[in-house]
Amino acid sequence: MRFGYSTNAFVKYSLIEAVEKISQLGFGGVEIMGDRPHLYPPDFEPQSLSQLKRLIEKNGLEITNLNSFTLFAVGDTYLPSWIEPEKERREIRIQHTLQCLKVASFLGCANISIPPGGPLSGMSRREAFSFFYEGLEKVIPLAEQLQVRILVEPEPNLLMENSRQFKEFIKEVRSPSVGLNFDIGHFFCAGEDPGEAFQELFPWIGDIHLEDIAPSRAHHHLIPGQGAIDLLKALKTVLQTGYRGNNSLELYPYADTPVEAGQKSLHYLLPLFREAGFDLQGLLGQSEDRDKKWMN
């Protein structure tokens, strides 16, 4: 189990700079943004991917996830999506997912995260799910072949935003290559207790996003400790379930101050990880000397 930091907080830096800064902060892992300005697959040749892989290994990091949610390179945060009425738009999302699966396999990353479909924009839920399943059928065979999991990430105001909706969706999926990217803040926004939701959805969880959310439950990622989520309770539940996957800090709203946001997060979270029973050496991928500056 590694604790990483998503490069989507470092969009004002190159991917190389982001990886180096995340390592310098003391994280044990890095979640890579599978989009511009970082790792949009069409921009990368095998040689540049090999160089990136060597850099990550040199810095003692593990890739926790390839975040394939956004598509700023050709659209925006959500679009093109799995559920747009136009077939050619849905095909862009399908091809992006196939490319990200290949990149993740090359880099030795066990999973990619994808959006849960949406926004609905007036489309019926029945039609939207039909489009989503149709798209997944085109990417699941490659995921199974490469042994890279596709993790759907529920988010407020999209096709899936809570535990009930995800369970309705996943019961129709027959492949173990499809699972859940559990964003603690997103389930809090949906009005759920993150710990209880984690227990309910545990069989499908392959990765965790971690951040805080304000008492209003508005969908805006905050530095841990600056919101209303009982993160210690949530982390204890994660460990009690037997979860052994990775987790990553996701603070994309802090593009102007990603290093400072990472520092504040570590100062707050590492004592909580320790109190919850996590192995800090395992989380950080280093000797405990690396975390002492944050613990004192």
Q: What structural class do you assign from the helix and strand content?
A: alpha/beta
Q: What's the CATH architecture name?
A: Alpha-Beta Barrel
Tertiary shape: globular
Q: What separation lies between the terminal Cα atoms?
A: 23 Å
CATH superfamily: Divalent-metal-dependent TIM barrel enzymes
Task: Return the CATH topology.
Answer: TIM Barrel
Following the backbone from N to C, one meets helices and strands in this order, namely EHEHEHEHEHEHHEHEHHH
For the CA atoms, what is the radius of gyration?
Answer: 18 Å
Residue runs with pLDDT of under 50 for 5 or more positions:
none
Number of distinct helices: 11
Q: Count of DSSP E strands? A: 8
Instruction: Give the strand order, joined by hyphens, for the main sheet.
Output: 1-2-3-4-5-6-7-8
Strand content: 5-15%
CATH class: Alpha Beta
